[in-house]
User: Fold these one by one.
Assistant:
Number 1:
Amino acid sequence: MSRVLIVDDEDGIRDILRDILQDEQYTVFSAADGIEGLDVLRHHPIDVVLLDVWLPRMGGIDVLKEIKANYTDTEVVIISGHGNIDLAVKAVKLGAFDFLEKPLSLEKVLTVVKNALQIETLKKENRRLRNSMVHEDEILGETPPMQKVRTLIGQSAGSDSRILILGDNGTGKELVAREIHRKSRRAAGPFVEVNCAAIPDALIESELFGHEKGAFTGAVSRRKGKFELADGGTLFLDEIADMSLSAQAKVLRAVQEMTFERIGGEDSITVDVRVIAATNKDIQAEIKAGRFREDLFFRLNVIPIQMPALRERAADLPLLLAYFMEKFRPSADVPVKRFADDAMAFLTEFSWPGNVRELKNFAERINIMSDEEVVSLETVRYYLGEVTGDSGYEPSGIDEFLDMGLSEARENFERRFLVRKLAENENNISRTAQDMGIYPSNLHAKIKKYGIEIER
Ligand SMILES: Nc1ncnc2c1ncn2[C@@H]1O[C@H](COP(=O)(O)OP(=O)(O)OP(=O)(O)O)[C@@H](O)[C@H]1O
Ligand SMILES: [Mg+2]
């Protein structure tokens, strides 16, 4: 159901508009001035705003600017009196979708709202498509270590050889694995990723090889494992060194013979899978310590690719930073932010323990949080401090949301945001609500919606 907000200081106009819009099944909100209107926007996603250009307290043009800057998905239709058509025209130049003149033709109101909604839907769809197509970054970097990586990708992609990618957190291991798949003859086949560190030991076998119905408690139906799902494509075994020794033994056999059985099954299943593995651990040390099987290492390590840490290729930093600053720019008509000289020097010297992922998160934060067109050293320090501080807080950017639809992503985010804000405010509802800028009743509703447990 689409949501429309009416911002007009005349009670009569608000009432009439509300009636006709509600008749069309829209959810209608209304506000008597701009400040109130912006407050509604903060608490409810709104698709279209009908905005009087002439308002007390805060002028319609300022309200419009505020909406365009903060709610890219919201369309604004200006309502203008006879005397101020010029303001309406200005508003359209500033990004309003259209304007309506008083006295209002109710028929025209409905048409314009409908058109605005259509545009809004198209915009969203467009972005969804764009995200799903170019959701990955290109592999950037011109320094010798990155050139070497690129050469290795080129040489190995065409063959079916197994590849082991080594490197610290956030150096681009997964990016490289996906690129190899894309360039291989298996490109049309599936790319299946397994994060070995995230799967409890008891489940890893079933995850990799699948199970038959009734194989164990909870196995209510037959399920294919990742090896089977990757048939004809690439299996990416991420964080391979975090797997238990017993799981390693089973993977060894599967990798060697491309044959395995589902748990509880008798038939051997044979697949055609290319295996790419990755780890951020020092694998030689893991072998020495007896935590990683040497024979599995030799199987996987046919072609090793070592990802350089960002500080080992600091000369690539400006290139990467420029790319991410452009990528996270709020909209195409906002200029890309630049960095003051001392800020840039600081960034180049910085140790980047989280490597490219940290740099990417940093660029995203700066774009969301800072208004400076030329970002100062102070701001850089502040946001780097927050990103790398040892508060135990893990920055994550939006990567993890990219495979979700908009509403799923929003809910996911909202839930986590609530949990954290509640914790920060010791589960005090009114304080948390105030902190988040919403009404306590609204917070209660959300807590209930997401089934968040409040301990006192
Ligand atoms: N050379 C690069 N050029 C552009 N983007 C990059 C590059 N390297 C990494 N990235 C980006 O940085 C982020 C982290 O990369 P990726 O997930 O591949 O790292 P990783 O080595 O798998 O990290 P982890 O060990 O933490 O899982 C991704 O968003 C990726 O697109
Ligand atoms: Mg990874």
Number 2:
Amino acid sequence: MSFNRNYIEFLFGNKLERIVWDDQQTLSPTTTVLQYLRGLSNFKGTKEGCAEGDCGACTVVFATIGVNGKLEYKAVNSCLVFLPQIHGKQLLTIEHLSDKNSVLHPVQEAMVEMDASQCGFCTPGFVMSLFALYKSSSQPTNETILDAFAGNLCRCTGYQSIHKAARLALNEMTPDSFTQKEKETIQLLQTINKGDACFKSANQVYYFSETLDSALTLKHKFPKIQILSGASDIALKVTKKKEILAEVLDLSGIEELKTIHKTSLGHDIGSGVSLQTMKEELHSELPSLVKILSVFGSKQIRQVATIGGNLGSASPIGDLIPLLMAYRAVVVVKGPIQKRSIPILAFIKGYHQIDLLEDELITLIHFPKPKQNRIIDCEKISKRIDLDISTVSAAMELELTPDKKISSIQLYFGGMAAVAKIATNTCVFLIGKKWEAATMEEAGSFLEKDFAPISDARAEAIGRMALAKNLLIKLWQNNPE
Ligand SMILES: Cc1cc2nc3c(=O)[nH]c(=O)nc-3n(C[C@H](O)[C@H](O)[C@H](O)COP(=O)(O)OP(=O)(O)OC[C@H]3O[C@@H](n4cnc5c(N)ncnc54)[C@H](O)[C@@H]3O)c2cc1C
Ligand code: FES
Ligand code: FES
């Protein structure tokens, strides 16, 4: 284990940039990319709106070398990414889009053509989201455009003209200056050394591991160290709560945690796999998972957020946990010596509490192959469709007899208690009943035995109960046959 590297290197546009954490360095290693950009004199195009991933004004694009050897472009919220996380990547901001002669990029031209900007505060963010789409999707549908913009808010222009600009730009996608320079960019990116790193400032130590072994060794040595993967939860401690993270262990560079293995027994998904990768790769195999991911945060959030991070947070309103319960997922954790496989129901121990020892890390999540004829479904209710965590969510695992009676049912709810949990009384009532709307309506009263929800900023207790009851009916409506 050698954490000798004390610098990061990245391509800033086409320029190789290096930031060294030596005695002269004044930047904290948990400086966000947005804070860094706003500190530069000629890069004020990237805006700070909320500093918590909710508005998209800070959207920038990362280009990395993908598995096919081509560049992959991803729009991310720069307010949630710490500087060490851009090592080895190309960072593109709004200032990089037009060429040296100030000729606008086709996505910018389209925004001008369609009058898609008024005050302009949100515009760089929209342009960068559109640029990433332009560079990554060969045939964008209306749905993919809406999905790409779900993390960008505009208060004055109105979304119609922005959407029209997207259609215009994406109708005719010609190779742009980035395509022309792709070979050169890849060559430059390949010159950047990888490897474990450590960035120290007066009151912080930030470790960046590139192997699971080195991360486990560190976790053993510093059991209280702050782990992060995508940092979409942890970054808020810095940007909103103004906490100084004294010791950080960043897992986002560990490739072995980013694999998806499909076997005859099911799927093994590495804890570091991003939610967007899961959404793109598991469409036909785990459709309910993909369904919930379609309303998870925004594309910018999903590009960085990981499945391991969602479990690590163990929020009672975390979107994935009830569904992982319905899938009977098994969480695999690893310590310096032993590996443990823990069924998700046992893994979630309480409010933000998980079965993870101080020297362990979550390494993968196993999704057993669902039995044939078993229906797995989920629903989420939030105040708005995109960019909002659940108020109440439900997931169901169901088996019916040939004459449409319920032979087995497990219903899990999020947002109804301090932890996501099964509705035991409701399930017991439902066994042997006919699978029809009236049954689910009747079952609603049993939820009152299962849960005593609280009132908070998202909903009153009474509202939560009403939502949960309606979700029972919705789950039937989704699967009437
Ligand atoms: C704007 C916005 C929208 C969001 N929308 C949603 C939403 O719709 N639904 C939802 O459920 N959540 C949502 N979230 C919360 C967050 O994005 C998710 O919980 C996400 O899955 C966290 O993943 P991460 O990799 O970013 O976690 P991080 O922030 O890196 O870590 C989260 C926690 O997990 C721990 N952890 C991470 N990896 C490991 C590991 N391998 N082993 C052990 N512990 C680990 C960390 O120590 C930390 O405690 C949203 C967040 C934001 C900012
Ligand atoms: S500043 Fe709002 S998403 Fe980053
Ligand atoms: S143009 Fe003003 S916020 Fe979008």
Number 3:
Amino acid sequence: MPLQQSRPPLPSADKRWKLVNATMRRNGYAGHALIETLHSVQDAFGFLDETSLRFVAASLDLPLSKVFGVATFYHIFMLKPKGRHACVVCTGTACYIKGAGALLEGIQERYGVDPGDTTEDDRLSVLTARCVGACGLAPAVVLDGSMIGKQTSDTLIAQLEELD
Ligand code: FES
């Protein structure tokens, strides 16, 4: 009987990791699933950070250097932003219908940054994700890793203003 390769535990209880894991499982945890898996991370989290890259590398049994190499080679992948705070606005269908566009417009008006950009003082980076797994809370935003649902431009800006 072949030895079952041990998989690393999910990095946290955040259910978005299950979406990422499902992508890898569907591909039999084969190395060729790398790009699809990185897309899945970005769709769920808005960007790729070291935790996610290490998790993907260990799960697919690939050298970390290869995973970093692919993640940085393709411009479509967004690495963890440089701002002290990260605001990921979900632009998936449910959130889009419920006004994600207005959230992005509000941010652009207040801070002058578009998705993928960071404010000049490095205080805030703004990103988008395709579905953060909380469609019932649309429009959803993940602010510094915490899910905040049912936002309006005003409630979101108020929370962003509170950040240091
Ligand atoms: S579409 Fe935004 S959480 Fe699913």
